[in-house]
Amino acid sequence: MAARNGLPKIHTVSLKKQDGICHDDSAPTVKAQTIDELHSLQKKKSAPTTPIDGTLSSFASLSEDERQKQQLQSISASLASLTRETGPRVVKGDPARKADTPKAASHDIHHHFTPTINVSDSSLKFTHVLYNLSPAELYEQAIKYERGSFITSSGALATLSGAKTGRAPRDKRVVKDATTEKELWWGKGSPNIEMDEQTFLVNRERAVDYLNSLDKVFVNDQFLNWDPQNRVKVRIVSARAYHSLFMHNMCIRPTPEELENFGTPDFTIYNAGQFPCNRYTHYMTSSTSIDLNLGRMEMVILGTQYAGEMKKGLFSVMHYLMPKRQILSLHSGSNMGKDGDVALFFGLSGTGKTTLSTDHNRYLIGDDEHCWSDTGVSNIEGGCYAKCIDLSREKEPDIWNAIKFGTVLENVVFEEHSREVDYSDKSVTENTRASYPIEYIPNAKIPCFGPHPKNVILLSCDAFGVLPPVSKLNLAQTMYHFISGYTALVAGTVEGVKEPTATFSACFGAAFIMLHPTKYAAMLAEKMQKHGATGWLVNTGWSGGSYGSGNRIKLPYTRKIIDAIHSGSLLKANYKKTEVFGLDIPMEIEGVPSQILDPVNTWADKKGFKDTLLKLGGLFKNNFETFTNYKIGEDNKLTEEILAAGPNF
């Protein structure tokens, strides 16, 4: 039978439901009259939360509107111009959504705050605050508004840090006032380059004016230090979603309850890195300036978008604040065995700190920054900042697997269509990095703190080939080598001969310490003595000759050494002393050839060994001259003990 248009008529057959062939997929229509209304149904509002412990704070008794208003007042105060004594008109939300901007004449329910003093053009506009956004929201902001932001094949966000792809230590300044002049380490060897208060305020005003001129700013309220008794509240104000997501990963993320009761921050960062400093300003030597004011507890960033400046700036602050509480701040990795034995790992770049502290048989407390208090060791950070150059699944499976949604990939190169990252490509920089939350590491210990350390391991990659693979240190030796912070890097080729170059970085992190190195060393010795920790010097460098003639100590041997330290078996070994450095070296370690334990045995040229050993000893002595005039301990006894623990020839 044909239909009216001449086509065959379609016959439909009613099927029983139990036949399972035809399903009714129809559903009620959506409760929306317009497409905008439909979109509004897609996102639900977060319900207000209350503190877990049931205690009522000053915020808890407030209504939601009042709490939001106080929060915005706090943010406006952070962005206040010191000369105009007022902050901007702030409102929560994305300016791209017109509904988020309240109209001055209307009586609406949007959460915004207008200061009472309005004497500048900034009072004519609202600054939109994107407050503690989630990674998903920050992805949207980065991809939509920041050129060079892409989602890679693994789900990570690839970003560019602009012209600067690393820290600029020569452009970092610290305000020298009556207090810091006495407390901080100044002069030869110190990372602290002075500036005065007035110059800081000029740069602060420049940064705040730039941030207030924008339609929107990102604000992160977060914590430092997993020890709840000694955590520090930090606020980061930035102009880029990349910076906000980076700090979301690197600082400790507050719970909704903690965020409700955050209050006033202890420290604030103003990241106006897209805007340069004025080179005619006093103390400025380039268009970049990273300024730290410990009196105001503020940091200003101008002229660099490299996110690592924020991370290390906060680390410098902790190096100042924590020792005031008798807490030792440390540039180290830390892990813990299943029996609760904690180890600290110190080491400069290339020594194997990350590789050796990441152990599948142990829990990771943290990979870079820690505090040692009266209750134990705690991680300062909430994330990891790993190098990506030449990264592979085989070499670093944990880091490889951590590069997923939520991770920031800095300055990496990826294939245009597949978005697969080529970690060997150095087109942008060799300093490619990944920033991810510490929970992305499978064996991370959450919360990130543990008991007092049992072992303190100082790592050095000795390219001269004269330090033993492992030495047991007494307290004075531990302090000497901790202050020295030695490793050796391989220099370039000169007429076909490669020469190693000694590198010393006090406390294995000279760029970030604020006080004199001997103060940190004295605290380390005191805590080691009090809690019975043992010091070890582990050489992951060369054996049988210097770089070019000898061979790198095999990683499996170093792992066996570290295992013997963790298990306690190395404490029971028989020891003998070495020449010049006077180090105690074990006679045997299970799984390690005994002949390599004393480096002189591995050198065919014995005279060459002695000459190289004396050369390295001389380099240590020359480096330590910077610290010899600093008196510590009663009657200067501690200084004399430390000096006596160095090379003797």
TrEMBL record:
One of its GO terms (cellular component) is cytosol. It is found in: Cytoplasm. Residues 91-108 have a biased composition (Basic and acidic residues). Its EC number is 4.1.1.49. It catalyses: oxaloacetate + ATP = phosphoenolpyruvate + ADP + CO2. PROSITE patterns: PEPCK_ATP. Pfam families: PEPCK_ATP (PF01293). Keywords: ATP-binding, Cytoplasm, Decarboxylase, Gluconeogenesis, Lyase, Nucleotide-binding. GO terms for biological process: gluconeogenesis. It comes from the Eukaryota. Residues 83-109 are annotated as: Disordered. Gene3D superfamilies: 3.90.228.20, Phosphoenolpyruvate Carboxykinase, domain 1, Phosphoenolpyruvate Carboxykinase, domain 2. Pathway: Carbohydrate biosynthesis; gluconeogenesis. Involved in the gluconeogenesis. Catalyzes the conversion of oxaloacetate (OAA) to phosphoenolpyruvate (PEP) through direct phosphoryl transfer between the nucleoside triphosphate and OAA. PANTHER family: PHOSPHOENOLPYRUVATE CARBOXYKINASE (ATP), PHOSPHOENOLPYRUVATE CARBOXYKINASE ATP. This is phosphoenolpyruvate carboxykinase (ATP). The lineage of its organism: Eukaryota, Viridiplantae, Streptophyta, Embryophyta, Tracheophyta.
